Amino acid sequence: MAINLQKGQRENIDAPKFTIGLGWDTNSSSTGAAFDLDASIFILNDQKKLVSDENFVFYNNLTSPDGAVEHTGDNLTGDGDGDDEQVKVDLTKIDPRVSEICVVVT
Predict the structure, then answer these.
(1) Please, what is the average pLDDT of the chain?
(2) What are 44's strand-pairing partners?
(3) In the CATH scheme, what architecture does the domain 37-105 have?
(4) CB count, 10 Å around CB of 73?
(5) pLDDT for res 76
(6) How far apart are CA 46 and CA 92, in angstroms?
(7) Are 44 and 51 in contact (CB under 8 A)?
């Protein structure tokens, strides 16, 4: 089941395993600036704080300590079909201190 979100939207996902995909294509006309999307994942405790610094998953820290969240890497161009970046989540592996996973796209 695919869920498409627009800027500012939220979604609660009730599945033990899921993949978050980012796909984009650059415009045919150039503004002169590079265009890139990045996914960052904040793995939070019940006080809505990071469980630890290592529980901030992004292009420079690809996997959470418990292995439950994996960022597949940074695509800088958006070239190609389908997802340009993916975050894979396996809640069966999640640290018991985790109460929320927040995904931010910039």
Answers:
(1) 84
(2) 50, 100
(3) Sandwich (2.60)
(4) 9
(5) 56
(6) 18
(7) yes
Instruction: Classify the C-alpha dihedral 101-8-75-86 as positive or negative.
Output: positive
| Cβ–Cβ under 8 Å, residues 55 and 71 | no
CB 31 within 8 A of CB 47: no
What pLDDT score does 39 carry?
87
Q: Which amino acid is at 46?
A: D
Q: What is the pTM of this model?
A: 0.79
> Among 22, 34, 101, which Cα is nearest to 59's?
22
Domain boundaries, the chain: 37-105
Residue located via tokens 């999307």: 37
DSSP 102: E
Q: Are strands 69-71 and 85-90 parallel, antiparallel or unpaired?
A: antiparallel
Residue 84, Ramachandran bin (φ over 0: left; ψ between -120 and 50: alpha; else beta): alpha
